[in-house]
Amino acid sequence: MKRILIILMCTLLISGCEFIEEVKTEEVVEEKEVKKEIVEKIEDTIKKNEEIVEKIEEIVEKKDEIEKLHWNHMPITYFIENKEECGDYETRKIRRAFDNVENASNGVVNFKEIEEPANIDVTCSFIEDCYEYKVDVRREEGIIYRYETICEHAKGTAQIIGVRGNEILKAKIVLVGLAGFAETTGSGASGFYIGSCGHPTTEIHEILHTFGYNHFADPESIMYYAEDIVGYTLQEAGSCVGSKKNIDEIIIEDLIDTYSRLG
What CATH number belongs to 73-259? Predict the structure, then answer.
């Protein structure tokens, strides 16, 4: 009898163990499935969010493209209105400035000079009584000081004078030289050379204004505000060394990015 009871107890115990094990296995499987489902939902949510972010970025990019002032065609034409008054030197410097912008953008931005009113009209003007060459002889010291003074004046101005929506249609540039030199007297250096060290910095600066670029705070930038205006200048020998400025890399990248889309 005892033996039968022992066998029955063992049988019940074994059956119970198997039942418990079966329940535990089902719970583990169910838990794994739940976790898998949660992970799939999270991944799906992340994917949807990424798609939303991409759409937002696309909308913002298109909005920036629409709002940004830009020329809508290439080449952009320019006309030097008064070549005779500008003189050979400044006429060449103006052309060199347009070439510099074109070359910097690898030809993505390009220009064409024409002999009639154009997209960009360029005019030369002159300021009187602004320059003085001084010689200071100091006999006691046995030294002769030679220097130039230039009054405060605008070197150039640029205006966008025609737009349609956010498309630039027409712009005007005025470049200011010093009177009393080759262009106005027929002799001596160019009134556009004095104070510029021969670099087309101001010309490039004004051309970039016609593309909608504003002044930069960086004195090393070609778009630094002082490229528009000359303060009172005492120019001595050696002051032109290291004065050349190149077009800012950020402007070059923006020009290429903006105008490569026109093609």
Answer: 3.40.390.10
